[in-house]
User: What shape does this take?
Amino acid sequence: MENNLKNRLFSTGIRIIAFALFPLIWFMTQAILFRELSKTADRWLLITLAILVGSSFIFILYLGMNKLISYAPNQYQEALFGAMFVGPAIFLLSLFLFYPAIRTIYLSFFDNRGENFIGFENYRWSITDPSMLITIRNQIFWLVGVVLLVILFGLVVAYLSDRLKRGEAFFKSIIFMPMAISAVGSSAMYKFIYEYRPPPLTQIGLINGLRVSRGFADDGSKCGNNTFTDNGEKIGYTSDGCEVPVGWLQQRDLQNFPLFENLDPGNTFLNLLSNLPLNTILLMIIMVWMFTGFAMVVFSAAIKAIPEEIVEAGRIDGASEGRIFLSVVMPYIRSTIIVVATYLTISVLKAFDIVFVTTRGDFESNLLAVKMLDEYFKFLNQGRSAAVAVIIFICVIPIILLNVFRNKAENTI
Assistant: This one.
């Protein structure tokens, strides 16, 4: 009994060393050593020391832990070896993830300098400030629109491409290609597509360039994007009757378009439609374009895993392709759809690059991630920035819980 207690105490002590003391020594020695050296040593010398000294020290630490664990009873050694390797990972995760999260929640209850406690004032601001309410509205638009459209387009493209007899790989590679482009690159590309220049400047944006180049003016002359005829005559678009360019990313709603001018107050549908944030929808299109290829690849893999006998049985029973898709394919890949929806939801909540590159959050096009950055760097308000970060985290919690419960339900079946 006494020996068993000693073995357990010894095992517990080694676990404490593996999970706390060992990672702490490992991290502190590396951090202190290279922080001090980085101030004086040459870059190449620092790299050489990092490879030789850093890796050698880690090897010695693991060798020492391995020797220490060898003195433990055999029945505890396997668990202790696992703790030896998991300990540093948990330590670093706690240091760079859990601590910043707790610190952020703490700062959200303080003022702009993080000095004076103000309670829930930052959270009250987040649900009363007009610009913050617009940001939350835009985030909801993105969450609903981007997730639904990417899943819809991904499903349709995956199902149709799997029916192709030739060229499936080429077709899928074309659809997947936007995933190879960074969000910054895609945003810059679409910014040129939506580009607007005030008249009479030449329109370099694709949409406005095509818009002002068609049709005829009221006097019968042709409209053009400041092109020249063989005689050297300039063809512009400033004459009456020519289409005018539109600042697509500056349009907060649709009320400036001819269809929505002089609306009947009793027409509820058109009035609601006229208030749709056009620039937000145009920015959503960028993310839909980027992630449709990802959804297509995942859904295609799931569809190919469906037993062919089930699909053939549906066709023998006289079911159409649409009925097979809804009644056979959709239920079979339901878990895959949930996984893709979860990934897209988290990606939308983190969406930053698209808005930052195109509009910088101006013209009521902001999102929570950009708002968080603005509050910290533009308005120098640590408390409000932390509160926005906490709101993003709160939005992620239901997604996490949904997946936890779904996994439990699948495991109990």
The first strand starts at residue 227 and ends at 228. Residues 2-107 form one domain.
